[in-house]
Amino acid sequence: MSQKIVLATKNKGKLKEMQKLLTGLDCAVFSLDEIAPSLTVIEDGKSFFENAMKKAKEIATQTGVLAVADDSGLEVDALGGAPGIYSARFAGEDASDQDNYNKLLSLMQDVSEDQRTARFKAVIVAYYPDAVHGDRWIRSDGACEGKITLQPMGGKGFGYDPVFFVSELGRTMAELEPDEKNAISHRAKAMKGLKDKLNALLNS
Fold first, then answer.
1. Beta-carbon contacts of residue 130 (< 8 Å; ≥ 6 apart)
2. What is the rounded distance in angstroms from the CA atom of residue 51 to the CA atom of residue 72?
3. What is the count of structural domains for the chain?
4. Residue 94's domain spans which residues?
5. Checking DSSP bridges between strand 27-31 and strand 3-7, what pairing results, if any?
6. Has 71 been annotated as catalytic?
7. What's the CATH number where 97 sits?
8. Sign (positive/negative) of CA torsion 191, 10, 94, 45?
9. Rounded distance between C-alpha atoms, residue 136 and residue 79, angstroms
10. DSSP per residue, 13-79
């Protein structure tokens, strides 16, 4: 019988990406809406790890299902690491992806090309509720370096992908095909590390 996993997100773009990245595990993967649609977790941590851990632990504890949660965002050097943990609500609580990256571009309009360095960072936590052996959890991190463009380019992806230029590929994240993105993205790197640890955890 395969292990049931709930992905602690209601973001459709992130959900689709994470489901694909978990391919290959002997697991039945569900969204939070499928397992506990009314459950919400307030992300009030001061780091990506704190937010990911809080989401994974609370959802695993309340559902009894192994929960995988990530917190991720964009860190821009010229803005002192902002938007960081506030990436999803950079332009306000109900901001759209376009609102957020337009605010970023506005703040960066006078920043020279060589100072536009940035990175996507992700921390993923899997929390395993186990009444017999005690709860266990694992963590995996990933990062992807790049630069902020002068204007959005590309129609794929989500979030800040249209304004994040991946130097090694010569395109923005939003110009990459899903398989290309999943080979180099911060979340893909973090999820790859998580899959290895998750196999060991589930078989221990």
1. 136
2. 9
3. 1
4. 3-202
5. parallel
6. yes
7. 3.90.950.10
8. negative
9. 36
10. HHHHHHHHHTTTSSEEEEEHHHH-TT-------SSHHHHHHHHHHHHHHHH-SEEEEEEEEEEEGGG
Q: How many CA atoms lie within 13 A of 23 on its CB side?
A: 8
From 26, 33, 71, 179, active-site residue: 71
Structure token digits, residue 7: 């992905």
User: Given this model, what pLDDT does residue 1 score?
Assistant: 47
Half-sphere exposure of 67 toward its Cβ, with a 13 Å CA cutoff? 27
Residue 157, by phi and psi: left (phi above 0), alpha (psi -120 to 50) or beta?
left
Q: By the 8 A CB rule, do 132 and 177 touch? A: no
Burial of 49 by CB count in 10 Å (0-12 exposed, 13-18 middle, 19+ buried)?
Answer: middle
Residue 134, Cβ neighbours under 10 Å: how many?
8
Residues 121-180 have pLDDT tens digits of 999 999 988 766 678 899 999 999 999 999 999 999 899 999 999 999 999 999 999 889
pTM above 0.90, yes or no: no
> What would the pLDDT profile of 52-111 be if each residue is shown by its tens digit?
999 999 999 999 999 999 999 999 999 999 999 999 999 999 999 999 999 999 999 999
